[in-house]
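Q: I'm writing up a methods section and want to include an example of the input and output format. Could you take the sequence below and give the corresponding predicted structure tokens, formatted cleanly so I can copy it straight into the document?
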Amino acid sequence: MKKLLSAMLLLVMSLSLSACSGVNEAAVPVDEYFKAAKTLDTVAMEKQILPTNTDGIEKNKELLQAEDDPFSKLFVDFMKDKAKKMTYSIKETKVDGDKATITVDTKYVDAGPLLKAVFGDLIMKMMGSALSGGEPSEEEAKTMFTTVMNEQTAKFEETFKTKTIQIPVVKKDGKWYIEQVAEDMVDVASSGFVSVVSEMGNAFGE
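A: Here is the clean output for your methods example:
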């Protein structure tokens, strides 16, 4: 009887450990990508992308490529702060041989309204300067941008958005990688900045 109870206990423990052992092997790169996205660790994020997918790696790299520029650094600092509040949950893993589709539910700070407000305010101020007979110098433009960004950030009220993303992954040389980097993935990591920049670019015909 004791042997039977021991065997049953071992079985239950084994099943429990199996259930808690984490994500499916095919979903590991997606899990690691979003885990790294919470700190905007683009190096760790890129390691999860198929090495031959140079476009995807470049798209991911663009998140922080202008961090040294004073204009972009304010946005990057803001994104890093808000990325920490992003949450994700892997909902489904469909494996078909060496390919799989991972479905992820995400929730993130929607910073799109901030970006629109900053550029709207900045355009108005620059138009005002032009109408008064002078174009601001590069240094004046930097100061103006910093002031506007700080003012709008102070007024910013956090709201959250949710997105469900289906991510294709592929197994190569025994390791699973993200095959394609969807714009939604980078958008979530950037707190919605990517979609707003794309929207504004379309509005200006770019």
